[in-house]
Every structure is written in structure tokens, then in C-alpha cells.
Write a structure and sequence with these properties.
Length: 309
């Protein structure tokens, strides 16, 4: 296996490879949200719904994950089902990929690992729910998602509803600035708050339509920037989680995570799951609405970007 190009190990599906070769639009989707972010059986329904929505918009979906050690960009229906229903599907960030591949594991990819593999395959637009970032208390725990440094060295456009509101949003925005990740608000100068329409923080730059984002992607390419462009797309206020409920549950969830002494990979899935149970599914619906809206916008950006549309 020595001497092979890394790209050859990233396996784009025939549908994705054909679309990319023809300059037709492709949008990457992550699998951690499927395997670890959403409860069963809703997770598989949502995974399929997002792929269907992209196809209906004239865009090829490329769900990313590692199946039996194979890093896939674009999954068959059987692979997607295996990600959603399999027991022992790991959560893989970039550093986990070599181990998952060499051991033949099944692993769902985070924003970081999805962005990395998608870009290796040539995909330029990616949609998710909320990015990982700096956790509250990170000054003591050093818990900062590998999503941030990976986006700093991965030229892909990520459409998201900001960063997860369980995080220290102010610190995450500072880190995005330090790391040189471009952040633009889609039709807003307020940084969205994932479950909430806004986080209480502002954004310097806005894009008003998909063509504006495509223009920024071209300009970044002209400069040979190696960092990501984050397009922050807020939920409309009528679709957000009730902010008072949000703040109450968040305080409980953080206290419980602390009591259990959680650290590392399980922290984010635990907090999201706590929210879902404590809000009786209301946070789940807000999360799904955000992902749907981000996928719809990512489709429009991919269409504006792709020469062969
Ligand atoms: N957004 C969601 N649900 C999720 C995640 C994001 O709506 O489950 C996942 C993403 O895969 C993200 C990960 O990369 O959470 C961050 O985990 P950590 O904080 O351990 O890096
Ligand atoms: Mn972490």
C-alpha cells in the first residue's frame, strides 16, 4: 500500500465521482449526527430525508463515514442504514481515521473528519447542524473540538446554525478568528445559536444569497487559502427552541455532565441527548429543522458554485 495517493483511499461513490467530474453540484453530509446525535429510529429517517431533499434540488448527496474501514464519500442505502442502526459505530474525528481504517471499523465522522474526507474527494460544500467548538470551562479542561483546527486547514464551505449552544460561543468565535476561519452570516449580522435563532454575538460579514457565497469561495481559491468558510444560517425565531426552556435545560445538563465527570468524546452526545429528553423532543425538532434548513441552503450554494449545473 506504500506510495499510494491518499486520495485513492478516500472512496467516492460512483454517483459522487461522476458528478464531481462533470462539475455538477455535490453536498457532503456528516454521519456523527446520524449515529450519535439523533435518537433511533428518527436518525435513519432524517438521514434519508436529507439525501432525498438534496436529490430533489438537483444536487448529489455525499454522506461521509467509515464503513468496514472504508472511508466513504457517498454511501449506498445499506451503508447509511448500517451507520444509523449498527452497534458499535465509533465516533471519528480526523485523528481516529487511520485507526478506523486500519482496523476495519465502522465509524461515524464528525464535522472535522467529514470536512477532511469530503475535501479530499473534491467536494466543496458541506451541511451540518451545529459545529463543535470550545466547551464551557475549557480554560480548565482544554476541551475544544477538533472541528476548529481542522476547519482552519480544510478549504470547504460549511453551512451550519452556528456552533452548538452547549458550548462557550464567545470563546469559539475568538478561536475561529485566531485560526483564520472565514465566518459569514447568511442574511444576518447575528451569530446563530444552534437551537436558538441567535447566540447574542454579532458577525462581521454577511452573505445575502448563494451567489455571494460562491463569490467568496472563488476569492478564497484565488488566494489559495486553505481554511474553511463557515456560513452561519439561523433558524427563524418561530422555529427555535423556547429560549427560557433552553437556558434552564442547559444549566441542568451541564451540571449533570459535571457530576458524572464526563470528558472527551461522550460529552457532546450526552448533552444533546439530555436536551432531547428534558425538552420532551422539542430540542430534537429544532435540531432537525436547523439541519434541514442548512441542507437546503447548502444545495443552493452548491448549485451557484458548480459550473456544470
Ligand atoms: N451537530 C449536530 N449534532 C451533532 C454534531 C453536530 O446537530 O451530533 C456532532 C458533529 O459531528 C460535531 C461533533 O463535529 O458533534 C462535535 O463533537 P466534539 O465536541 O466531541 O468534537
Ligand atoms: Mn471534546
Amino acid at each position: 500500500m506504500n506510495g499510494r495517493d491518499g486520495d485513492e483511499r478516500v472512496i467516492a461513490s460512483a454517483e459522487v465521482a461522476d458528478a464531481l467530474a462533470a462539475g455538477r453540484p455535490v453536498v457532503a453530509l456528516e454521519s456523527t449526527i446520524i449515529a450519535h446525535g439523533l435518537p433511533r429510529p428518527r436518525n435513519l429517517e432524517v438521514a434519508r430525508e436529507l439525501e432525498d431533499a438534496l436529490r430533489a434540488a438537483g444536487v448529489v448527496p455525499a454522506t461521509v463515514g467509515v464503513v468496514g474501514g472504508r472511508p466513504l464519500v457517498g454511501m449506498s442505502p445499506a451503508d447509511l442504514e448500517r451507520m444509523a442502526t449498527g452497534d458499535g459505530v465509533a465516533k471519528a474525528s480526523v485523528r481516529d481515521l487511520p485507526v478506523a481504517m486500519a482496523t476495519g471499523a465502522d465509524a461515524a465522522t464528525t464535522v472535522a473528519a467529514t470536512a477532511y474526507l469530503a475535501r479530499r474527494a473534491g467536494v466543496r460544500v458541506f451541511a451540518t447542524g451545529g459545529l463543535g467548538g470550545v466547551h464551557r470551562g475549557a480554560a480548565g479542561t482544554f476541551d475544544e473540538s477538533a472541528d476548529l483546527p481542522t476547519l482552519a486547514r480544510t478549504p470547504i464551505t460549511v453551512v451550519c446554525a452556528g456552533v452548538k449552544s452547549i458550548l462557550d460561543v464567545a470563546a469559539t468565535l475568538e478561536r475561529l478568528e485566531t485560526l483564520g476561519v472565514t465566518v459569514v452570516g447568511y442574511g444576518t449580522d447575528r451569530f446563530p445559536g444552534f437551537y436558538l435563532s441567535e447566540s447574542g454575538h454579532s458577525i462581521d460579514w454577511q452573505a445575502g444569497d448563494p451567489a455571494a457565497v460562491a463569490g467568496m469561495m472563488s476569492a478564497a481559491d484565488d488566494l489559495d487559502l486553505r481554511s474553511a468558510i463557515v456560513v452561519a444560517n439561523p433558524l427563524p425565531p418561530a422555529e427555535q427552541l423556547d429560549p427560557a426552556l433552553h437556558d434552564r435545560i442547559l444549566a441542568e445538563a451541564l451540571a449533570e455532565a459535571d457530576r458524572r465527570g464526563l470528558h472527551g468524546k461522550p460529552v457532546t452526545p450526552f448533552l444533546l441527548d439530555y436536551f432531547q429528553r428534558a425538552s420532551q423532543g422539542a430540542s430534537l425538532e429544532a435540531n432537525i429543522r436547523a439541519v434541514r434548513s442548512n441542507v437546503a441552503l447548502a444545495a443552493r450554494i452548491a448549485l451557484a458554485w458548480s459550473p456544470g449545473r
